[in-house]
Amino acid sequence: MGTVGTLRSAGVREGDEVVVPAYGNPEVAEAVVELGALPVYADVDADSYCLDPAAVADAVTPRTAAVVAVHRFGRPADMGWIRKTGQRHGLLVVAEDEPGAGHTDRDEVRRRRERAAYLDGRLTGVATPPAVAGHTYEQYVVRVPGNGRPDRDAFARALRSRGVACRVPVQTPVYRLPRLRRDVYLPQTERAVDETLALPVRTALSRRELQRLATACNALGGLLQPAF
């Protein structure tokens, strides 16, 4: 049905507020705007990059009609606490996968988890994602220590020059995009945008390529001063 259809069928209408993530997936906020409702941005949890349940609770007002949470990078959002907030305030709670997620076979997920576990045990130059049950590692997202975006971007360029196909997963907070702009500042969202980098864990990677990736990250990370 999609976000628009789900919200519309639940009675979300013009003038309502819908709590949405500020980190990634602008199409969620765009769906809210399409209905004439107002997207209200909530901050993310520093470990999962999904909606922070406490931030969701703080964002609720008498005009709030719904909350849309997104499972981020293959890690499930904390839907238990978010649904409790929804029940307390009588809100619709919608959980969505990121585009392209949710259609991976079990064997591929197993292999990605093996690669993630290998990197968890080898990487020292970056902060690795906390290992949690249910994580499918659609993306393996690390934090680069140092001085935020300048060091992260320099780190990414250096990795690419060594043949590592890394990418910045989210370029800017949703609330800074032209059509979705709001005068807010969410610290964990800002920090995540500035520090995160997605490293490859695709199943085609050989063990030697993983070793080369870890060696490159550790050598570069040693040049930076941790910011956490």
Quick summary of this structure?
It comes from Streptomyces rimosus subsp. rimosus. By secondary structure, this protein is α/β, with parallel strands linked by helices.
How is this structure best described in words?
The structure is a single chain. The chain is an alpha/beta fold. It has two domains: 2-97, Type I PLP-dependent aspartate aminotransferase-like (Major domain) (Aspartate Aminotransferase, domain 2); 106-221, Aspartate Aminotransferase, domain 1 (Alpha-Beta Complex), CATH 3.90.1150.10. Helices cover 39% and strands 14% of the residues. It has helices spanning 2-9, 26-34, 53-59, 79-89, 106-122, 149-161, 187-195, 207-221, and strands at 17-21, 38-42, 64-71, 92-97, 140-143, 196-199. It has a four-stranded parallel beta sheet, with helices on both faces. Strands 5-6 form a two-stranded antiparallel ribbon. The mean pLDDT is 91. This is L-glutamine:2-deoxy-scyllo-inosose aminotransferase. Keywords: Aminotransferase, Pyridoxal phosphate, Transferase.
Order of secondary-structure elements: HEHEHEHEHEHHEH
Q: Determine the mean pLDDT.
A: 91
Shape: elongated
Q: What share of residues is helical?
A: 25-40%
Radius of gyration: 18 Å
Oligomer: single chain
CATH fold name of the largest domain? Aspartate Aminotransferase, domain 1
CATH class of the largest domain: Alpha Beta
Low-confidence stretches: none
Q: Supply the number of structural domains.
A: 2
CATH architecture of the largest domain: Alpha-Beta Complex
Strand order of the largest sheet: 2-1-3-4
